[in-house]
Amino acid sequence: MASAGLSRRRAAAATSPTADDDDLPSAPPSALSQSSPPTPATEHAGSAFAGGSRIAYDPRDLPGADADAEGGDVPKLTLMEEVLLLGIKDKQGYLSFWNDNISYALRGCILIELAMRRRIGVVRDSGRKRLPLPERAITVLSTRQTGETLLDETLRMMKQTEDAGEKMGVSTWVDLLSGETWNVLKIGFQLKQVRERLAKGLVDKGVLRTEKRNFLLFDMATHPVADAHVKAGVVNRVVALLTSGTSAVPPTALDAPGTQCRVLRAVCLACAAYTASVLDNAFGRLGYEEREGAFGRCDEILGEFGVWPFGGGGGPEPKRKPRIAMGSAGVDAGRESVRGLVTAARAEAVGGDEDAGFELIAAVLEVLSKLDSLL
What we know:
Elements: H1 29-34, H2 67-70, H3 79-87, H4 102-116, E1 120-122, E2 138-140, H5 149-163, H6 170-178, H7 194-204, E3 211-215, E4 218-222, H8 228-242, H9 262-275, H10 288-305, H11 328-347, H12 356-369, H13 371-374
Antiparallel strand pairs: 1-2, 3-4
Family: Belongs to the GOLPH3/VPS74 family.
GO molecular function, one term: phosphatidylinositol-4-phosphate binding
Region (Disordered): 1-53
């Protein structure tokens, strides 16, 4: 019975001889020479991959499918996954039990990721500038699915709330997604098991693996690192960003060329890891003075990007005071590096200071900068 439509991936079996093939008459050489030439491997005529077999696929999963709509290619790991990866212990496979900041910071990263993918932004109202950044209302710019469960779930809740005639500010959304509310009618907005769901997503992507670990009275699923190269790449990008001594952004601190919002994504990764209290995990090979200098640099970056427009001054107060004296050359190099980041990030904005998504990111960073006082 001839098969029609889509075929299996394993299509090479048709060329292998079987017991029944010996009974079939062989075609004469003249017939073979008159037959049509085989289709080249480069012409896969509607298939997702080269090879000739027709395979079902989602066009949105192909590299560059949404590059025009989102301003570049989507990276392999989301911002939330990279922050979680920095916090997970390589061999043990779990986060620190004493870290209370990461859950709140991950909710902020969800809003940042949606804003960088051009799904949400602040409401373009002329009177919004009278309000503080965290209180400016969020609006849905696009309901196109992202393919990430947490992002799509959050986007759906925002759209339903907006359709009901209610628009809430940035800080309110971060609180509701974290479950930090006394309003029983808003309990349903809390995202459940965010860390576990992100870890399972990293398992599906081959970065982590799942193991069962015994903790005296109970067993718990842990997720040790399976691909150390991926985590090392995240660590190297953060360290390169916070130890650079030039005004030019080092290429080693950025994602692959063509990635959407490369500079701003690197800045948000460092700031989110800092506020989530997992940044020190990336500084294992740095000396004491280098660590303190990197923390101070991240504090300056958070102050410059927690305002709108970026680098406009008047940002949040530094969270930590330097415990060592730095020479004037080191201070000047750090300031030049931060100025270079601000310039490069502002160049990525669409419409300059009228970019609704970047303004929302600045609001989230300001909320995260006050995380210690909130908790």
